[in-house]
Amino acid sequence: MTPSSRLLVGEQLLLTLWVGSQWAIGYIAVPVLFHSLDNRALAGNVAGEMFTVVYLIGLVAGPLLLASLWFRAGPVLREWRFWVIAAMVVLVAIGMFVVQPMMQDLKTQGELVKGSELAARFGRLHGVSSAMYLVTSLLGLALVVFGRRDD
Fold it and tell me: Is residue 44 part of a domain?
């Protein structure tokens, strides 16, 4: 196996881990969690921990994928995969370091009573977070479906 082939296998493994974890956690595990637990606060806390793991996977896998693309193909600024991965990393970083801490801060300010201003602010942030997660998941799916590299 050539070094280039090993990098390709490594890229495929990283992409599978990252995108697979996004879909498995976000669209299977978390909905099951909320359906199975009566305590929505507990389900939300566990879901938040799982999303943190997915974010961490993205923050490791994304830069490694970008570096691998650069190493294997040279300057890749014209390659769509580079920009898709870069966008995914940016979305993950914003989710983990901006939106998620803001949501946690709202939780510490008091109980999120339905109809309260606190709950409304949390709901808006949750909507932003969900939209960013969906976009990241769809970009990852595009990489899996259309981004195969054989060189």
Answer: yes
Residue 138 lies in a domain: yes
Q: What is the domain count for the chain?
A: 1
59 touches 33 (CB < 8 A): no
pTM to 2 decimal places: 0.89
DSSP state of 99: I
The answer as to whether 151 is a domain residue is no
Question: What is the chain's pLDDT, residue by residue, as a tens digit (151 residues)?
Answer: 776 677 778 889 999 999 999 999 999 999 999 999 999 889 999 999 999 999 999 999 999 999 988 887 777 777 899 999 999 999 999 999 999 999 999 988 888 788 888 889 999 999 999 999 999 999 999 999 997 655 4
CA triple 35-140-32, angle to 5 deg: 10
What is the DSSP-derived secondary structure letter of residue 115? T
Amino acid at 113: V
Dump the DSSP string for 54-81: HHHHHHHHHHHHHHHHHHHHS--TT-HH
- In degrees, to the nearest 5, what angle opens at C-alpha 100 toward C-alphas 17 and 41? 95
